[in-house]
Task: inverse folding
């Protein structure tokens, strides 16, 4: 268990650094008027999650999943895990459940963010 935790922690540190560098690079390249860095990491992270899931399955390399999927990609973007969960539900034939998951995740996450803003601002006033 401790080895798995070390894998996740190390991968998370690497992913977080990659996220930061991607955000800085996207802002320099594309400008600061739109959250390009977040968009780029979400798209790249989701793409890489798809690649890594297939490669690890074909190579019987699931022992690297904590480092690569939870750690590196989790530090880079949790959107990749969300995308994989939605795709898994869809591929199982649970199209309605997948759509509900996507809708609930987006709506409730944004609502929770606003709730957090309101709560924190009420204490900061």
Result:
């Amino acid at each position: 268990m401790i080895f798995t935790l070390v894998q996740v922690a190390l991968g998370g540190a690497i992913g977080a650094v990659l996220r930061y560098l991607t955000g800085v690079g996207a802002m320099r390249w594309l400008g600061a008027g739109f959250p390009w860095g977040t968009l780029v990491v979400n798209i790249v992270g989701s793409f890489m999650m798809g690649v890594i899931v297939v490669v690890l399955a074909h190579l019987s390399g699931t022992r690297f999943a904590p480092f690569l999927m939870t750690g590196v990609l989790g530090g880079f973007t949790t959107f990749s895990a969300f995308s994989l969960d939605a795709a898994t539900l869809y591929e199982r034939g649970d199209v309605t459940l997948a759509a509900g998951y996507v809708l609930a995740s987006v709506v409730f996450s944004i609502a929770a963010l606003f709730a957090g803003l309101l709560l924190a601002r009420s204490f900061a006033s």
Summary: Residues 2-77 form one domain. The chain has a mean pLDDT of 92. DSSP finds five helices and no strands in the chain.
